[in-house]
Amino acid sequence: MGVNDSDSRKDSITSSTSSSHLDLELLQRLFVKFEPDLTIDSYEEAQGSGRGDNYTAALFRIALKGHTQPEGSSKKLKWEKSIICKRLPDCKIKREAFKSEALFRNEVVFYNTIMPEYIEFQRRQLAAVASAGRKHEKDQTDTDVAARCLELDEHSIFQAIPQCYLARDDLLVLEDLRVRSFTMPDRQAGLGPKQLEAVLVELAKFHAVSLAYKQRHPVEFQKLTNSLEEGIFSQANAEWYRKYYDVLTRNAIQMVRQTVPEKKEHLAKLEAFLSNCFGHLVELVNRKSELSVICHGDCWTNNILFRYANDGAIAE
């Protein structure tokens, strides 16, 4: 997977403040950068997720149809592509309830700035390893070293995200991972042990890259963190979410009490924590240490996609 390159991010459309609705002109300008001979003739829009799958934004799947015609050729070649379009909800009440605008801004910063910077950082580190390898392996050819470094590059760089074609304040245009056979787990069933392990491995890689970048480039890392805003767990939102978390914590306590009534000591600790659940979460989210890193921020089943091998094992 990959992210938009630096030229894409500097294009004027990425800073547009016009309507988030797509049109042929915008789509043409987006994809001609990747395929210069492309002409997009039409597109169709459909829901990008099921009812209840996404709360903070509106997701749409866009089917693009067009053709390519290389210069000097009279032959037109059929071209089709599926993309995911993510927009802020039209309803202002919904945007305020789910703090959509702050979360959306964070996502734009992630795709435009944070992830490209992390990927380039990893490539620089791998290049340094390759350079050191060439100095210490004079008995091997440069071709051997280059081949190993290429293999390392393919498998070691963390970039477990969809390709991003556009990220601006009101609109994200992303690769449709369904085309590559990725699927979303059932949010009501939750994650199984293998799925959970796979998610934790990817989160560990993400956090490791973030921590390494922070140690090597502390000033730049601070700039990245300053560009983000905590959308949910801030004290300013305490009153807004009070009733919601009151219900949530009561249900959690009742569930534990019914499931393991003999665990009175554990229940007491849970009740103590949940008595000020939102306040504790605000403190935890804002806590800083040498190991603090940039986190996912909304890691739950509906923000995770899996691709499975033929034998049912998780491939990606």
Automatic annotation (TrEMBL):
- The segment(s) forming the CHK kinase-like domain are 172-316
Q: In this record, what's one Pfam family?
A: EcKL
Note the SUPFAM superfamilies from the entry.
Answer: Protein kinase-like (PK-like)
| SMART domains tied to this protein | CHK (SM00587)
* Top-rank taxon: Eukaryota
Q: What is this protein called?
A: CHK domain-containing protein
Highest classification ranks of the organism: Eukaryota, Metazoa, Ecdysozoa, Arthropoda, Hexapoda
